[in-house]
Every structure is written in C-alpha cells, then in structure tokens.
Amino acid sequence: MSDKPWGGRFKESTSLAVEAYTESISFDSALYAQDIAGSQAHARMLGRQGVISAEEADRLIEGLDQVKREIEEGSFPWKQELEDVHMNIETRLTQIVGEVGKKLHTGRSRNDQVCLDFRLFVSDQLREWMRLVRALVRVFVRRAEENRDVLLPGCTHMQPAQPVSLAQHLLAYAWMLRRDAERMADCERRVRVSPLGAAALAGTTYALNPAMVAEELGMYGAFDNSMDAVADRDFALEALFCGSVCMGHLSRFCEEIIWWANPLFGYITLSDKHSTGSSIMPQKKNPDVAEIMRGKTGRVYGNLF
C-alpha cells in the first residue's frame, strides 16, 4: 500500500531509487514562505466560502504558523520520501492539527499550488532586484554629482576618441540600470497573478473565490484561463531575461573597473578592502570582485538559456 498522499489507488510503495530520482525538496524548500502564505490564504478563503468551517480554517492557519516557525528555527523534519515542499508542509501540518490538516488541499491541485508558489517567489525576487538596482542607480548619480569636472578619455574601439566627464560616463550606467528596473517592474505585474483555483487544469466544482486569494496575497488579480494558468512558465523566463540584461550592464561596468585599475591606464586605485593579491607576485593588486561579478553573469545567462 502506498504511503503517498496521492497513492490511494497504488498497492506498492515507491522504489527508493525512484524517490531519490524524482524528489524536488532539495530545490523547492526555498519556496516554503510562499507555500505557507498561499496555503493560509487558501484556508481563509475556504472558510469564508463555507467549504470548511471558520474554526477549521483558523486551526489550519495557526498550524501553518507553527510549521513556518519550525522551518525558520531549523527544527523542521524535511523528508525526501514526501517529494516536495508542498507535501512536506501538509504532512507536518496534519501531524500538528490532526485530520483537519487534510482539508487544506480541498479544491486545490499541486499544479496550481506549485504555480502560485513559483509566481510569488519570482515576484518577491523581482521586487528585491528592483530595490537593489534602484539603490545602485542612486550611487551612480551621487558619484556623478561629485565628479562633474573630472575629465577622462571617451573611447571607441578601446582608443581615445573624445574627452568626456566622468559624470557623463557614470550616468550612462545609471540610465541603463534605470531601464533595468523599469523592465523588472513591468515583468512583475505579469508575474504576480494568482493561478489558485485553476486546480489541475480545468478548475474545480468547489465554490472557490480566486479573486479573494489574489487580493489577500497582494497580487494584481487572478488567472483568466485555467489551463494557461498552470501550463506556462513564461513569467519565469521573462524574469530571467530581465535579470540577464541587468547582469550584462553590471558586467560591462566591471570591465571598465578592471581596465581603469590597470597601471597601464592608471585611472583609479582600488581599495585594499575590495581587492585581492597574488601568492607569488606581491606587487599586484587584483580586481577580483569585478572579475567574479563578470563570471557570475555567465551563470545567469546559462539559467536563461
């Protein structure tokens, strides 16, 4: 007899090799906060719609609060045999609150649950990226204000071409990054749309209220087509594109730093706090931070591809 939550018709337990091969908990445990927030909104909606009682909804919400505390305190018992973050949390919830824990999944499939978690996670990441990018834009603007009268060669083909102010050069990157933040904001409005209520692909016969869940989670609305809601991940691809463009701009500026710090150019001197040295050539000061930043850009491009 299968011990899986989905194993009602199965007569044998899953092979250990299959469990190890198909588990996703080593990746999707990062979605725990979004999974719990989505489940609490779902439970609250079920209670308000009369699908479960208000008391049952309250017990589910309180139990999920305890699960979140355990995860953040490091005492949560993650189990590979439970496959993913969703079944791990639901199983632990049922241990805490009893049989009512099994009602949390009423009217919900792992399909729309996974997609909700993923959308919330990507949206949260985009908001953090925007915060950091905007902060960096402000740094470029401040440094430009401080260096209006500092001149340096403006180059084409890596050859001196026309004199420019350092302020103009720095503000070029401020404008690039501002567009990056605008792209992220535009993308985030498409990402933060709730798929909950789409169920596996064609909805459910329960009297759910997807708009209520979307509003509680601070989303911009609910899905328009249930099949599209659970079948497409274009929102993740678009977010990765936005991140890749931004990384390209950051990598470009880091290459400037690398050249400017080279004694053959001698435009800048890097601080010791933000440099590394050589194990065999003590005269060297290496722009490792800028070089590693450029290396990380390749990883983001790889994720996009």
UniProtKB/TrEMBL annotation:
> What is this protein's name?
Argininosuccinate lyase
Q: Which PROSITE patterns match?
A: FUMARATE_LYASES
Which BP terms does GO give this entry? L-arginine biosynthetic process via ornithine
Could you tell me the EC number(s) of this protein?
Answer: 4.3.2.1
Q: Which organism is it from?
A: Mailhella massiliensis
One GO cellular component term: cytosol
NCBIfam families referenced in this protein's UniProt entry, alphabetically: argH
- The answer to whether UniProt assigns keyword Repressor to this entry is no
Pathway linked to the protein: Amino-acid biosynthesis; L-arginine biosynthesis; L-arginine from L-ornithine and carbamoyl phosphate: step 3/3
Query: Which positions fall inside the Fumarate lyase N-terminal domain?
Result: 8-302
Gene that encodes the chain: argH
The chemistry this enzyme catalyses reads: 2-(N(omega)-L-arginino)succinate = fumarate + L-arginine
Q: What is this enzyme's class at the first EC digit?
A: lyase
Q: Which UniProt keywords apply?
A: Amino-acid biosynthesis, Arginine biosynthesis, Lyase
Q: Which domain of life is it from?
A: Bacteria
Residue runs in coiled coils: none
State whether keyword Lyase applies. yes
Which GO terms of the molecular function aspect are on file? argininosuccinate lyase activity
Q: Which residues cross the membrane?
A: none
